[in-house]
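User: Hi! I'm working on a homework problem where we have to compare a predicted structure to a textbook description. Could you give me the structure for the chain below?
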Amino acid sequence: MFPHHREREQPIFSARAHVFQIDPNTKRNWIPASKHAVTVSFFYDANRNVYRIISVGGTKAIINCTVTPSMTFTKTSQKFGQWADSRANTVYGLGFATEQQLHQFAEKFKEVKDAARLAREKSQDKELANTALTIAAPQSPPVMCVNGPEDKLFRSQSADITLSSEKERIKKMLSEGSICEMNLEAELFTLQDSNSKLVAALHEANANVEQWKKQLLAYQEETERLREQVVELEAHGGHGPSDLLKDELTQSLEELEALLKAKDEEIHILQSKKAEYHEMEHDRDEAMHRLREMEMRNSDLERRIQNTEQNLSNSLEERDRMDSEIQRAIEILDIKIFDLNDLRQSLVKLIDK
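Assistant: Happy to help. Predicted structure tokens:
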């Protein structure tokens, strides 16, 4: 299902919370970004060594934040925390159901921030090492002039520039496709979480329905028996203790009817939940279909990149071959020039004689 599993971001932690954003005008009030609690996940990109916080509400991403070492998650109450994203020029707020969930999210935020700091330091050390190697590398010899300083040999680089720009454009398309794919994965992750909860609730509801059906059947039998007793007492037309018994039976009958009505309402609620479960299954199937399409598109883009890299490699080999031929021609010209100089000196000596 995931042929390029290692090349994409992977969720490492998820929590349910209400998402808010700071009002851009007042910078004081919170604006709800979700109508209800949504899944907020930490993702890790192994290729770029980058951590992100992603949350999807409906069909759009309400949080898409790259974690940097300068970020700080602050607990402002027992169940609420916030952090600032300078790239998005906003402040995100999360409201949790319990204090423990807030504590777990804050601890994970700190771990991810420390990991991002270490990743940046390693990247900077690698860049410094590459810079040092570049400075220490020997300079390539200059191109020789044949007939004078104005007659220089130029190398055609139009093919290289065209191939490089095409490669960058395809890589950009692949990056955009990966972002869309990450959003779909986050949405699929949310749907799977909701689906598992609904499945558990549905199984529990089915078990309760069977039990309630048995209870309803017993209540109905008891009700019919009580009705028969009431009718029998009314037929005898007795008084005194019989009237008292009739009142008790009538009260018991009313209580059983009220209980039957309550159980019918509970069954109706469970049936509505079952319909919601089927709707969630449909949404999950659609998300899976979109994810497969995105994977096919990424595979096509990767094939195009491979073809472009192959063309670029062939072009570089062709350029190296031309450089070799030009160098060989320069050597031949140097020999010819030397021979001409030798001939010129010989002619001068003959003329002097």
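For your comparison, note the following. DSSP finds three helices and eight strands in the chain. Residues 40 and 276 are 22 Å apart (CA to CA). Good luck with the assignment!
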